[in-house]
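Weekly puzzle thread! Below is a chain. First person to post its structure in token form gets bragging rights.
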Amino acid sequence: MKWGNTQNHLLFPRFYYLRTHNDLEIDLIIEVENMSIYPIEIKLTKTPKMGMAQNISRFTKLFTKLDIKDGKIISLTDKNIKLSKEVYIQKLEDYFSWLQNI
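Winning reply:
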């Protein structure tokens, strides 16, 4: 697995995609300037389910040495909801606002 981005090594935030050999997949990983990591899943549904947080939870448990912040499931929902201890469901428009401030 490769985390580096050699061409833009001084630019933040950095955006990654993760897929491991044991089928862990994160749609988007955002690394911000202080080396914090935000795992993001993108779902085209208005009714996110608890199971959609599974990959973010696995990612958090596997990479304990990283500064992993609360994960986000971006969806077409009408409101932001805390889905689990480490995962929030976020409306698409609120996600875009959040992106402008990281």
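Puzzle host: Confirmed. Bonus trivia for everyone else. Residues 2 and 78 are 36 Å apart (CA to CA).
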